[in-house]
Amino acid sequence: MKAHASVRLKLRSGKELATVFEALAPELKTATPRAKATLNREDELLVLSLEARDLVALRSALNTYLRWLSSIASTLQVLEAL
Question: What is the CA radius of gyration of the chain?
């Protein structure tokens, strides 16, 4: 069975979109045998698409990418406050 998920994020600016995209880009090169991720830009949206062999692998990959996105957002907030 194949499982799919797509997350669309609207970011505050084009600069923030580019920063998040570049921060996640290296992770896309390391696909696992059970899951694959792609990242695209659509206008002002960041689109993360995941495909996995099963729901467990999809959940794991989705949680990983959402944690990374949360970490990047937190880092950007700290940098803005400086």
Answer: 13
